[in-house]
Amino acid sequence: MLEADEVIHSDKGISTGHVDVFAKLATGLLRSTSEPRDAHRLAVELVATALGGDVTLVYGLSGDARTLALSAHRGAPEALLDRVGSLPLESASLAAHVARTRRAADVDVAAKDVPSDIHAAAELGCGQRALAVPLVSEEHLFGVLVCFTPRAENSRDRSLPMLSALTSLIAASLASATRATAETDWKYRRLFEHALDCIVICDDAGRLVDVNPRACELLGASRDELLRGNVFDLRPPECRAEARANWSEFLRVGHWAAEGTFLRADGSTFVCEFNAQAHFVPGRHMGILRDVTARKQSEEALRQSEERLARAQRIAHVGSWQWEIDPDEASWSDECCRLFGLPPGTETRSYKKFLSIVHPDDRANVDEAVRRALDGTRMYSLDLRVVVEDGRERIVHVEGDVFRDEKGCPIRMCGTVLDVTEQRRAETALQKSELLFRQVLEALPVGVWVSDERGQLVLVNPAGRRIWGGARLVGPERFGEYKAWWGDSGKKVEADEWAILRALRNGESVQNELVAIEAFDGTHRLILNSAAPVRDAEGRILGAFVINDDVTEQRRLEAERERLVEALSTERRWLRAVIDGSPIGIVLCELENGARYVMNRRAEELLGVANSDPDALGKIRKRLRLPDGTPVPRGDLSIERGMRGEVVTGREMLIRAPDKPDVPVLTNASPIHSDAGQHLGTVVTYEDITPLKELERMRQEWTSVVAHDLRQPVTTITTLASMLARSSADPTARRRAERIVESAERLGRMIGDLLDLSRIEAHRLELVRAPTDIPELLAHVIEASGDRERVTLSICGDLPVVSVDAQRLEQVAENLLSNALKYGTPGTPIEVVAERRGAEIMVAVRNQGPGIVAEDMGTLFERFKRGRAQGGSIKGLGLGLYIVRGLVEAHGGRVEAESVPGESTTFTFSLPITEGG
């Protein structure tokens, strides 16, 4: 480093073009006596103009003379300002060296071991030569001026002497400005030092350059400790990143106000309200911090107190209110608003608003209560109903106090609102419950006795009075008036043995103790005595109750039931013996817990199924066949139909077992129902009718033989009698011959019926089918009936030609028409109607007359059965309808009868329309 007297001088001066500028700057500098920063700014411009330097810096000395702070510059890049903006006076920088020695210096920036600030300027290309001169006036150091210029071209360069001369002018100007502002600075310094708020001053990088004593006290550190840090260190670690991120925005905007958490030196934190002002002087920024921790704690305590009050009001459903009578302004707590069905808020409310939510039927009562409270005649306390916004009603209890002025005039009312909706409803429900309890108690069929905690009987219901033939509400000392004996031992029940006293004294619950009593009216009864204590929420016994159940009749009935059960068991044993010994197979299907089959020995023999076989129904289905030997359709077994609730009577079946002849059986099935109509199961019988079938076969053969052998003699008699009737001249002989012919013909018809019966039952009936016109066939039958005037034929629609045995079908129609003529009222019309219904032709023969009684309808189509309407006057074997049914069923049709006694009878048969028809 070179001293001033070692500098190589130059005769370089100010160029002519810069004279005017230089003169103006020098004049302005001499006049700048109000603000030192203005002098610094003009000094930079003056030096830069005079020397033509690339970068010029002016440092001011801090108030404590420890730091050089950059106060003005020209041409300096931001990177340089960040590095040399603040230089401690004890640092190794060129500016600090010049300030300490108060001697100017001229340094080649390219030299080795240059000071740190010159090295930083060299890296940023600020110039080749650094000139530094102290600003001294009257032995007082005001700062340092540093100028970076190109390297000197000859040894006569005079830049440094010229700079020294200029600094004398600048120092004199600074001295003048300092003296003018010294008093002001002193005042502001005293304000800074004695301020009650914390004041910190920092540079553009956030480094602390000054703090007041209050800041040291608040932050818990000395001034020197604080000045070694920056403003970001004052925040907790978790807040520093955000503070740094907001710093550039603060410098741009110029102002910042907020609240936040700050950090003391001992690690504790406090809440601070801070205001910051950027650039209050160039390069300096001030922040004012005020500790609001206590205030925040008070606010938080107040907030928590208000929250606790609001929470307590919300939990208790209690709201508070205040009404300023004049000017009619009311304030409601949030809970009060909720109780009134309104959103919480600060909306100004009035007495009129309050009345608007009161139920219309309660408003007059509210007005009267308010008036009396204001008059002082009665406290303001009443229940009222409010209508909330959704239309629901809420019951609230309102109370209030009236506050008066010194003259006794009411000025204010304050009070509370309590939601008593559930309480009032509970009270109403309790009243209803008590009424219901009384009604139930009176309606109970058992006796109920209630005692207090001392055992004094206080309540008995009507059933209790009835059981005991009266009631005596006495205490334990008189319980001996109630006479009773233990049901198991017959010993007398002593007074202290009653269940109610055990419940009171021991907390014992007693159930169904059998006791024989002698009632006050002298009657004897059996009762089941039960008792239990009544306790409060803490378990204390408040009393006891007793229940007397009169089981006198029940025990009598139980004894009777046991006798009946024994009798029934005996009967069942007899019945079982009868069933097991029955020659008829019997199968019982029980449905109580799924189908279960029970068989007697004869059923096991016939069906070949064991009584305990789990697949009994499946094996029965394999064994049974229809009479023609075909399998029984699924679900059509008699036992299956019985399980569906059907009744099956006299159904003929075949039992077919391997390597055994078929066994014809007659089956019957009947469902079993309880007295309540519940379907319990079904019973099926299987009767071996092999002997009957053999007898029937022999009878059919005999009938066929007899009928066939009788036909020829009858034919001979008919022929000879007819010839005699035609040839005899004697009227009497002719008449007798005609009677012989009629009798022989009737006998011939009977023989024919017997032959048809034999063929039908022997399944040997042969049909000679041919296409037949049914209307034409019916018309022919009616024509041959001999009574065509009474008979009308109606054909509904077109009937197709069907393939039938015309002769047999004529026989069916003749038989039905003959019956209609015989059994109908003489002279009444007979209707024959034929129509098509789906795939069938239906033919109906209807007559008017006495009809068929209900008892005959079930056996109408059985053989040798005749109706009772006119059975005494009409002769026959009773085979006509049986043969009709056989002939119709042989054609694949069916025949039915319908009769309304006293009105009409209709026989209807059907014929299927086959493909050949």
UniProtKB/TrEMBL annotation:
Residue ranges of every copy of the PAC domain listed in the record: 380-432, 508-563, 649-701
GO molecular function: phosphorelay sensor kinase activity
Domain Histidine kinase span(s) in chain numbering: 705-915
EC nos: 2.7.13.3
Keywords in alphabetical order: Kinase, Phosphoprotein, Transferase
Record CDD domains: HATPase (cd00075), HisKA (cd00082), PAS (cd00130)
Superkingdom, taxonomy of origin: Bacteria
Reactions catalysed: ATP + protein L-histidine = ADP + protein N-phospho-L-histidine
InterPro entries referenced in this protein's UniProt entry, alphabetically: GAF, GAF-like_dom_sf, HATPase_C_sf, HATPase_dom, His_kinase_dom, HisK_dim/P_dom, HisK_dim/P_sf, PAC
Domain PAS: residue ranges: 184-254, 332-377, 433-469
NCBIfam families reported for this sequence: sensory_box
Protein name: histidine kinase
